[in-house]
Amino acid sequence: MLKKIDAMLAEVENLEAHSAEDIEALRIKYLSKKGSITALMADFRNVPADQKKNVGIKINELKNLALEKINSLKAQFNTSDSDSIDLDITRTAYPIQLGTRHPLTLIKNEIVDIFSRLGFSLAEGPEIEDDWHVFGAMNFAEDHPARDMQDTFFIQSHPDIILRTHTSSVQSRVMEHTQPPIRIICPGRVYRNEAISARAHCFFHQVEGLYVDENVSFTDLKQVLLLFAREMFGEGTQIRLRPSYFPFTEPSAEMDISCNICGGKGCAFCKHTGWVEILGCGMVDPAVLELNGIDSKKYKGYAFGMGVERIANLKYQVKDLRMFSENDLRFLKEFEAAN
Ligand code: PHE
Predict the structure, then answer these.
(1) Which of ligand 1's atoms lies nearest the C-alpha of 190?
(2) What percent of the chain is predicted at pLDDT more than 70?
(3) How high is the pLDDT of residue 218?
(4) Distance (Å, rounded) from C-alpha 159 to C-alpha 137?
(5) Higher pLDDT pick, 134 / 84
(6) Residue-level pLDDT at 39
(7) Cβ of 249 below 6 Å from ligand 1
(8) Is any atom of ligand 1 closer than 6 Å to the C-beta of 103?
(9) Under 8 Å CB-to-CB from 111, ≥6 apart: which residues?
(10) Alpha carbon distance 270, 219 (integer Å)
């Protein structure tokens, strides 16, 4: 056996190859499952115990030499010939990952879609606003405590310039240069100085609506909101309006829908009440119309505003608000099917 190994050592030492196929053939000849070195290793079992040590060392030597030789032939081959050997131009390309719409965009689009079918058109405005459009034109008095309702971010060097706390500023921007009828829907990002937690964030998204015309009534508002709730959350959805307060609407209300998670029976999400709040609304305060150059004797209006994250939570039951802004692909990919 030792003789045989020596002969093979000499053979392996002088191996030559002229192509990649040659090298592969050598590998198969010596090192594959049926290769001669593999066969030698299998025979090792039959070597008498006193020779095992010597033979073992030699076989290992042979195997390592063969590996080395074949690898060095490969390397030589790769460098001596061009790279094109490994280039397969017929191979299919790596798939390009397509992006998907963000869940908040999906919900926003759905809200805007429902209202545009009702005749509302889209209006947008700046996120960095002046105090007038966010508060002044919306009937917040200078020292009105209601300004504290919305924890405002101020630009330090310009106390008059703020990050908008609601998209009502867009209502004002439209009213100041448009005479009724006005029927707009204003989606956008808003900012409030709140500690970030699972339930609050320093920015979120709103969609507000405004309708100003002759003879607009609270009934119109209620009907439009009922229709919206049913389009968004399903036919059987109920709504209820509770009296509330906003400086820019009078009367004001907050609207609840029957909890779409438990169907109104009561669950942890609706705190066992069967109802969940989704938006604020009311009749536009005549003072707001006047402040924005609209004759409040001739025209009336209604307005409403909702948080997109809130609606998304109800639809998708996302427990932690922070998920919406962390861009974790595992989370975002869950909405692929909804795109
Ligand atoms: N602007 C209010 C808010 O941000 C929402 C709202 C809009 C309420 C219109 C009533 C009417 O909280």
Answers:
(1) 4
(2) 96
(3) 97
(4) 17
(5) 134
(6) 87
(7) yes
(8) no
(9) 185, 187, 207, 228, 232, 306, 308, 311
(10) 27
